[in-house]
Glucan phosphoethanolaminetransferase (Alkaline phosphatase superfamily)
Amino acid sequence: MAKKRAPSVYQRNALAPSLIAAAILFLAPVLLGGPWFLLVLFIVAILALIVAWFAFQAKQWWWIPAFAAVAIIWNPAYPLPFSGQIWSAAQPAAAVLFLIAGALIKVRRP
């Protein structure tokens, strides 16, 4: 007979958007300079704001400035003129930020 598993005490609302953003950011250096990169900017900026909102709900305020910065840097409406190796390295760095936040932002289940 299988053992019944106890339900988790916490839920990680930011995990799914963080995983999606990280996957896109790990692929972003390949798309850099192409027509699809605008889509990367939109997706990353929106998901950064979503993760910041989940951090706010979880009362983990220290994540909000980091994801506000990501939303500003990857802003598609007024793109900042980044290019070169630093911009290519910023993509996986932001992906790691999303992965860490997705794992650490959690709220207690009611």
Observations:
- The beta strands are 10-11, 107-108.
